[in-house]
Backbone:
């Protein structure tokens, strides 16, 4: 089943550009900012993976910790969000904020041990990833 999922993901990846024209808004920012942002992004996807791993092992406290520190409101200082926000269109910044808020909500729910609501809120986190990626590009 694992290999099936890998094939599916690869197929989706190659088909995506063919079925969907790229109408994302280009957001210009200095090279250094771009690199900084992409570093953050790679950590974001790693954090989501670590959250899912923790959930599958029933370690909700660990899931909460990763969400709050790497994606939640507590992560804002670490990744220079206020500085970066100056380069973003308003709506893009709002999507970013909604992601941070969703992650902090998730963290509180996970701490309370509520699995089902936690999954719903994890979904709200990834919804923000998807929304921003659908709307914007930086290069
Ligand atoms: C506020 C907007 C925004 C949010 C929210 C956001 N991203 Fe991104 N992300 C971007 C942009 C813009 C790019 C660059 C896309 C491009 O230029 O093609 C990007 C790129 C990436 C990349 C590619 C990094 C690379 O080195 O190529 C990954 C992985 C990624 N994002 C993961 C995530 C994950 C996971 C989340 C949610 C937890 C997330 N992002 C949330 C805007 C966002």
Residues:
């Amino acid at each position: 089943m694992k290999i099936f999922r890998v094939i599916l993901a690869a197929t989706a990846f190659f088909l995506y550009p063919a079925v969907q024209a790229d109408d994302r808004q280009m957001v210009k920012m200095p090279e250094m900012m771009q690199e900084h942002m992409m570093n953050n992004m790679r950590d974001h996807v790693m954090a989501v993976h670590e959250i899912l791993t923790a959930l599958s092992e029933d370690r909700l406290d660990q899931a909460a910790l990763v969400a709050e520190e790497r994606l939640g409101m507590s992560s804002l200082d670490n990744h220079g969000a206020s500085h970066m926000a100056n380069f973003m269109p308003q709506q893009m910044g709002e999507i970013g904020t909604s992601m941070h808020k969703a992650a902090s909500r998730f963290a509180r729910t996970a701490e309370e041990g509520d699995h089902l609501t936690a999954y719903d809120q994890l979904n709200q986190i990834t919804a923000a990833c998807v929304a921003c990626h659908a709307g914007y590009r930086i290069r």
In short: The chain has a mean pLDDT of 90.
